[in-house]
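pinned: reference chain
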Amino acid sequence: RIPKAPNDSTLSAAQIINQQNASSGMWAFSEGLEVCYLVVLFYLLWPILFNAVGHLPKLWESSRKA
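pinned: its structure tokens
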């Protein structure tokens, strides 16, 4: 079935709410996947960023000596 355009007034408010309720689980699942992806990404990138920031003073010191 082809969904109606948003400005088409043939759908009642109850039909619109039912359609939103039917797809809310899919939206919640996809947002949960996005959160899981970002948590894993930050978990893996945190040590790399921490070590890079830790090496900055050494790099600045070596550039001053050169």
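why pinned: The mean pLDDT is 86. The chain has one helix and no strands.
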